[in-house]
Amino acid sequence: MKKMLPWLITILLAITLIVVAAFLLMDKIFPNDTNDVNTAVQNVETKRLSADQIVELTAEITDIKTNLADPDYILSVDIAFQLDTAKSKEEFEKIKAIKITPLIIKAIADAKPEELNGASGKDQFSSKLVNIINKNLTEGTITQIEFTKFILASI
Fold first, then answer.
1. Under the phi-then-psi rule, with left for phi > 0, alpha for psi from -120 to 50, and beta for the rest, what region is 122?
2. CB 120 within 8 Å of CB 43
3. Model confidence over 73-130: pLDDT tens digits?
4. Buried-exposed string 18-37: b where 16+ CB fall within 10 A, e elsewhere
């Protein structure tokens, strides 16, 4: 028994260190999607714009209809995108049909109906869209997304 005691202490110490290291590294190994949303929200700067400036910086994509991850549901949506500069709006207008619309359709196809319910669901989905689309823009960034039409229906 006396010969096994140092081995038992060593094994228990090693297991304890492994468990502590696992808890400390948990966020780095398995990151949460909510961290992306929180950082996106923190990085947004609000500027007061006049109505003319809002119209000048806003582009629209209308009449997107596609199934959700649950094939029993369909979403019909119109989206208004507010960009940071007039030049970025011009670039956005050029690529919206061939680059932005497919990204939106893919994001909708991954969404579940219960994720899109309520104002918080729509806010999280719009944050997800901002992150996805900003990565693919050639010039400028999207500062805000508004749903001008949002119809979620079961088939």
1. alpha
2. no
3. 999 999 999 999 999 999 999 998 999 999 999 999 999 989 888 888 899 999 999 9
4. eeeeeeeeeeeeeeeeeeeb
